[in-house]
Design goal:
The chain is of the alpha+beta class. Helix content is about 30%, strand content about 30%. It folds into two domains: about 190 residues, 3-Layer(aba) Sandwich (Rossmann fold), CATH 3.40.50; about 100 residues, no CATH class. It has an eight-stranded antiparallel beta sheet. It is globular, with a radius of gyration of 23 Å.
Length: about 400
């Protein structure tokens, strides 16, 4: 599982570390850097799925660019950025540190290239599993060395793709294989969810994996085996039943078409006591569909993965903030899925109470440099005073955090 994300000269950040917990809540004013953290996670996930560095940042006909493309990737005044990911092996309780630096020298290079990259196994004695040798960035290849007893075995690899993805596809020492596979799979299982209810209203084909916008939610549920589908629909109904003013009696995905290869989402609602009606996704509210997409995402993610949702509570009534929070906590912990969300919603933040303070991270702009920084809410110097003025949601709604940030000095 991903434990820490460190970014250097990435977009608005000079240097910052995000500590990932079972439920991490990222808050901050507009343009404070929250979305840039999510973009860094998107970058890491894309490097192992799509691999080509230029397409990863700039996009292609199949892939949208990461916001700003190549031009707005590095902090202004820099021609490279570095991202580190600390990843834990839950089985062996071993940590691995993966680091990659990308060069964007615009005069010398026509495309982003790997400047340096490494993977270390951490412990009482740090073991270098692979690392790159310094080289001329204008050359099309670089030399990567992999651990082999007391020496490194050298191999030539392309600098247009990550070394991690290339070693993943090659034969290496058993220790290297274990670390590379863990890091590769962890990054691959970062799932950036951007629910778009409008896209989930149509009939869809049966598919095993949820799309990043949740558009194929009905196809995912309908593609399950009968036993899995029945259990899944019970769970999703349990949470969804408390969402509207009255009660949702059942949520299910029904198959249609001559070969039953298409599906649509259907809810059985009871707004008048004793009278129910079925409404398919074309007639469901945006808030209901968004909630169901988020719930389906966390219920279908593999153990050890990270689910990321920006402004995840959009369209959800403030009185249902507790329902959403409990669902993410309960199902995430039960399934071993970590969740990272951003929010501006005071009702949701208040619902967390004081016990969740260690897991709330504030993104803000440094008063001296203008670069973005991250700070744990529990590390704010005047935390006791703030607690006397209410809960986190109250601080956000009344501008208390802005007052606190104006007093923070550059660290």
């Amino acid at each position: 599982m991903l434990k820490e994300l460190t970014i250097k000269n990435w977009k608005s950040f000079e240097s910052a570390t995000l500590y990932v917990d079972p439920l991490t809540v990222l808050i901050g004013l507009n343009a404070s850097g929250k979305s840039n953290i999510l973009d860094a996670l998107t970058f890491l996930q894309r490097t192992v799925i799509y691999r080509d560095l230029h397409a990863t940042l700039a996009g292609d006909r199949f892939l949208p660019e990461i916001r700003g493309g190549v031009d707005w990737t590095a902090l202004r005044g820099n021609d490279s950025f570095e991202i580190e990911a600390k990843i834990a092996d839950a089985n062996s309780k071993t940590d691995y540190l993966y680091s990659i630096e990308i060069s964007l020298l615009k005069k010398e290079l026509t495309t982003p290239v790997v400047k340096k990259e490494s993977l270390q196994k951490l412990g009482k004695k740090t073991t270098n599993l692979f690392w790159t040798e310094p080289y001329e960035l204008t050359q099309p290849f670089l030399t990567a060395k992999t651990y082999n007893r007391k020496a490194g075995s050298a191999q030539q690899v392309s600098n247009l793709n990550t070394v991690l993805s290339q070693i993943y596809a090659s034969k290496v020492h058993e220790d290297v294989r274990k670390g590379v596979d863990l890091v590769f799979d962890t990054l691959k299982n970062i799932f950036i969810l951007d629910p778009i209810p409008q896209n989930a209203r149509r009939y869809v084909s049966l598919e095993p994996d949820l799309a990043s916008d949740g558009s194929n939610i009905a196809g995912v549920i309908a593609s399950m085996t009968n036993g899995q589908k029945e259990e899944f629909e019970k769970t999703i109904t349990k949470y969804a039943s408390k969402l509207p003013e009255k009660e949702i009696k059942k949520v299910e995905a029904l198959r249609f078409g001559p070969f039953e290869k298409d599906a649509i989402l259907v809810c059985e609602e009871e707004f008048v006591k004793g009278k129910t009606q079925k409404v398919d996704s074309r007639g469901l509210s945006d808030g209901t569909l968004r909630f169901l997409i988020i719930l389906t995402a966390i219920l279908t993610r593999p153990t050890g993965s990270l689910l990321v949702i920006e402004e995840f509570d959009n369209g959800i009534h403030p009185s249902r903030a507790g329902l959403l929070l409990n669902m993410l906590r309960e199902e995430g912990l039960q399934r071993g899925v970590d969740v990272l969300v951003t929010t501006h919603n005071p009702a949701f933040l208040n619902e967390m109470g004081t016990e969740m303070l260690p897991f709330v991270v504030l993104s803000h702009r440094d008063v001296d440099t203008g670069s973005s920084k991250l700070v744990q809410i529990e590390d704010l110097p005047n935390l006791t005073k703030l607690l006397g003025r209410g809960l986190v949601g109250d601080w956000v709604a009344r501008g208390y955090l802005e007052e606190e940030l104006s007093q923070l000095k550059q660290k």
